[in-house]
Design a protein that fits this description.
20% of the residues lie in helices and 29% in strands. It has 83 residues and is an alpha+beta fold. A 4-stranded mixed β-sheet has the order 2-1-4-3.
Length: 83
């Protein structure tokens, strides 16, 4: 099985866990798979926070239909409340 390297940058509520982290995922992983690996690799991060967050690359928010096939840098964006 081929893998790719993901460098994840943390923002908002995720900053309490550091600035970033890196891990590998299988080629063809989507946002849900990446979130699952992030939760497994970083057990100190609240899994509910990861589940409700969005993942983005430099151009757009990833959807479950987006599959990654090369090493990448992503950002994890927590849900935002306010008014």
């Amino acid at each position: 099985m081929s893998t790719i390297q993901v460098h994840m940058k943390f923002f908002g509520a995720f900053r309490q866990y550091g600035d970033d982290c890196s891990f590998t995922v299988p080629v063809g992983s989507n946002a849900e798979t990446i979130k699952a690996v992030l939760a497994k690799e970083n057990e100190n991060i609240d899994p509910k926070l990861i589940k409700s967050a969005a993942l983005a690359n430099q151009n757009s928010i990833l959807t479950t239909a987006d599959e990654l096939d090369a090493d990448c840098e992503l950002s994890i964006l927590p849900p935002v409340c306010g008014g």
